[in-house]
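Posting here for the record, re: EPS.
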Amino acid sequence: MHLRFTTAGESHGKAFVTIVEGLPAGLPVAAGAVDRDLSRRMQGYGRGARMKIERDRIEWIAGVRAGETLGSPVAMLIANRDWPNWEDVMAHEAAEPGELRRRRVSRPRPGHADLAGVLKYARLDARDILERASARETAARVAAGALARRLLDEFGVEVGSHVVTLGGVAAARPPELPVPLNDAADRSEVRVLDSSVEAEIVRRIDEAKKAGDTLGGEVEVVARGVVVGLGSHVSWDRKLDGRLAGLLMSIPAVKGVEIGMGFEVARRLGSEVHDPISGAGDGAGGPPVAGDRRGGFRRETNNAGGLEGGITTGEPVVVRVAMKPISTLMSPLRTVDLSSGAAANAQSERSDVTAVPALGVIAEAMVALALADAMLEKFGGDSLGEMRRNYQAYVASLGDRWVASRDAAGGS
Ligand code: EPS
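Prediction output follows.
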């Protein structure tokens, strides 16, 4: 990986820390832009009481000076405002046994990491697992993603998302997505582009809440303005579709990822799936407009979701991500008490009814990180200026090849 990131932190610990390594020097960054994504992640109908406590924002710790990256690892801290309520339970040094027993979790929730985690890590208290498995960790990922987004923005790439289903209600996808996508999606409290289904989604969330249940759904992430040629067909671990899917599948509660037409391709004829190629401009086969990041080619459709052979085509990168319902149920499922071995009801902790609107923001972050990584792989550079020169030279060379091909064919 050329852009690496790691996070540390527990849901009710003192803070989360994110380290992003590999950004070029000279990238203008501002905490405000990172905080905007953090606050977008906290929104959405169906979130629980925790989101009323927190005001996620970053504090720069390292790697940034006078509003620009230095090329060194960037470290950011997100404080947990809930920490004072948990200081004794989550104390770093040995605490009174009574404090540790308080809020001990011995009834693992089906669907969460609780049971597999305590067995694997030999812990008696499932809190030792769930604190890190909590989806609150995604705040730290969104901060990393916001820096990746900042880099992509320098190259005209826009990453946005919208909710396509929630609680079994499907939102219609407009044939032309709005630009910018997030301005439109963020106007909806469930982040749909189809206002006719909003009330029904809200009703289902209310109904699930009343029943002590939870809801899942799907989001679509779209990255527009991506240059042709990111990723590679040559080796399995360089294929960008595989890298994207891996990052997206690592989001808590995500159970599926589709690219472009997704699973539907398996049910269609080849002629209905593959995207016919056309030339730029007059359609007579070039030459392309100078500086065309698609090399002078267009697709009539984009069922491939902007990726062929693990390489970007220059068409929008389109992925869909499916999230299962949150596993903390207020009407709990059956489980086994870890201390007695007796049948019990699973732990009910404060949680959300659904976090599907937030999933979009988190998935945007993962897509931005994957694309920024692939940009750094292709264009490298220790400074933003160097990376930009490499990018521009490559895009110019895409046009040059038309002249070379014509000469080789003996044309005029
Ligand atoms: C989350 C914070 C958590 C939950 C949610 C995500 O806060 P708390 O557990 O203190 O209420 O709202 O966590 C989960 C869904 C989970 O499964 O752990 C957040 O900041 O996104």
